[in-house]
Amino acid sequence: MTSRGDDDPAAGHARTLLSTAGRYSGSRCVALCLVSIAATGAGLLLPAVLGRALDLVLAHAPATRWVLCCAGLVLLLGLLDAAQTVLTGTVDARTTAWLRRRLTGHVLGVGPRAADLFGSGDLVARLVGNAAEAGTTPAARAALLAALAGPAGGVVALAVIDFWLAAVFLAGAPVLALLLRAVSRDTSESASRYQQAQGRIAAGLAEAVEGVRTVRAAGTQGRETARVLRPLPELSRAGHRMWRVQGRAAARAVAVAPLLQLAVVAVAGVLLTRHRLSVGEVLAASRYAVLATGVGVLVGRLAGLARARAAARRLGEVEAEPVTAYGDRRLPEGPGRLELRGVSARRGGRTVLDGVDLDVPGGTTLAVVGRSGAGKSLLAALAGRLTDPDAGEVLLDGVPLHELRHDDLRAAVGYAFARPALLGGTVGQAIGLGLAAPSPGLVREAARTARADDFVRRLPHGYDTPVADAPRSGGESQRLGLARAFAHGGRLLILDDALSSLDTVTERHITEALFGDGSGTTRLLVAHRGATAACADAVAWLDAGRVRAVGRHEELWRLPEYRAVFGDGADPAGAPGANGGARPVPDTQGVASGKRGVTA
Asked: How does pLDDT run across 100-152, given as a tens digit for each residue?
């Protein structure tokens, strides 16, 4: 992993995240650091006091005060350890919560592009698991100073007792330093691979759960399980490598540390025979040798920090994606005229839309039709700035969407989707989502327009029924999504395949309400049925990412290729009886057609 944020944006964002998270719990981190240092200080003081008490006892001198000091230090160590545990848990929880709030807000700010880049399952794994692991960093760093102070203090104490004790220990110190460096480097690499494999498993699981009915109907549970768990061998290898790294470090520590301790005790014994040390000082020296070789604590701390750093980098990859930026222009009064000028968009390395030009006058309805993969949903997303084009621009009443203020844009554009996410505590709140203060009357009127009022009233608590407790079909969910779009209002309404799950009678009622209410709202409708397209003022026919023709449905119906878009060519709208004609439009040629002047 590159160490410089300029060369590795993810690493730079990870460091910024952890630095800001540390400041968020700064006072608690300082308290944890002080408590840890106090505990280390008490631990360093205890061997000296024990040694002094032992010397007094052996000399038959009064030692009560020193014994009481020993007891007091033991009690103090217990209290400091408890405080350290509480502070560590508090800092970890606060930091994890802050990271999750920060990253969740950032993901929502990035918009649908985040799920396209990382996958919804992997995003959940990062926001849940990786955030929890990265959240341990501030507390681990605060305690690391005390973990380093223990061995350093032990060496100093050995030097105070006798210089030769410290010299013997320092002779083997480079081996310990190399051991700690190797642990940090190897653990960081294996932890990164482990977390990446976890993310791929989470992404596959999210896809499988979303399509569980399809999997069950196809009888492919075993095959799908194998697909989800395909990264498991890599996960296992990375996990075993982490344990091997730490196991080798522990084994080397077990081999090196006792040798150093034995060497210190041996030298202390020699000095005791020469009457340069007392028995109590030998006892203290043996304890300080143990503290000085506290590699186990440092290995654990450094391994934890390495895993947290790898997790933070995965969060930094998300943070490195720029959020959608909005301008400061206000939306002027206008009828809701929508313009797409030379719009091109790429997804997954493929050009989905290529140089699309459309002009939809205010108050008209444009149906967008085309085969699967033609770019209809992407065009609908661009029209309301759920995503941005790679080239060209989209304008609403003459103002480019990227120059509009966030509130103005979202108040002007309403959306309904094929599979609406019904957010909010109750059904009524789900319909009124996004409105500052939705009135019950407005919510009910929108539900009536979407033909949802009847089945909502039959729910156990009507509009106050929790969404999770409201059994509903796919068509009923779509009607609630349509009701939300109708309640939203605005000058541009975009329906992205929002009628696909409705029965023909309900669809006819809703299209009548959509196209006959005289509200003046501009409507962009992704349509798959000829009957729906026939109700629109004009139809934009997308083919291979380009506008092939624009015209009335009954005019375009004369073209065999257009009829093939709807399947077998049977036109439920009875288009063959219509007069007029529309011709195919070359990709670079503009043409006007339709009764309300929609142009391409």
From this structure: 999 999 988 888 888 878 888 888 888 888 898 899 999 888 888 777 888 88
**Residue closest to 288 by CA, chosen among 151, 193, 111:** 151
Residue 487 has pLDDT above 80, yes or no: yes
What pLDDT, on a 0 to 100 scale, did the predictor assign at position 115? Answer: 81
CA-based torsion, 303, 297, 15, 2: positive or negative: negative
Query: How far is it, in rounded angstroms, from Cα 478 to Cα 501?
Result: 7
CA–CA gap between residue 123 and residue 130 (Å, rounded): 10
CA torsion through residues 317, 319, 320, 325, sign? positive
CA distance 9 to 558: 55
Q: What percent of the chain has pLDDT over 90?
A: 24
d(CA 600, CA 583) in angstroms, rounded, equals: 12
- As a dihedral over the C-alpha atoms of residue 366, residue 372, residue 378, residue 384, rounded to 10 degrees, the angle is 30
Task: Tell me the two tokens of residue 195.
Answer: 């977390």
Distance, CA of 450 to CA of 499 (rounded, Å): 10
Q: Which long-range contacts (CB under 8 A, 24 or more apart) does 74-82 make?
A: 74/46, 76/42, 77/39, 77/42, 77/43, 77/46, 80/35, 80/38, 80/39, 80/42, 81/39
What are the tens digits of pLDDT across the range 181-238? 666 566 666 777 777 787 778 777 777 776 766 667 777 778 778 888 888 888 788 7
Joined together, the tokens standing for residue 558 give: 């004369």
Alpha-carbon span 489 to 457, nearest angstrom:
23
DSSP-assigned states of every residue in 452-465: -HHHHHTSTTGGGS
The first and second tokens of residue 19, run together, are 């630095």
Question: How far lies 550's CA from each of 243, 301, 530, 593, in Å?
Answer: 64, 66, 15, 6
Q: What is the pLDDT of residues 313-353, one digit of tens each?
A: 889 989 998 888 899 999 999 899 999 999 999 887 888 99
**Is 307 within 8 Å of 133 (Cβ atoms)?**
yes
Report the 3 state secondary structure along 23-68: HHCHHHHHHHHHHHHHHHHHHHHHHHHHHHHHHHHHCCCCCHHHHH
Contact status, residue 143 vs residue 84, Cβ threshold 8 Å: yes
Q: Give the CA distances from residue 359 to residues 338, 453, 515, 591, in Å, rounded to whole numbers and listed in that order.
A: 6, 35, 19, 10
Q: How far apart are CA 445 and CA 435, in angstroms?
A: 15
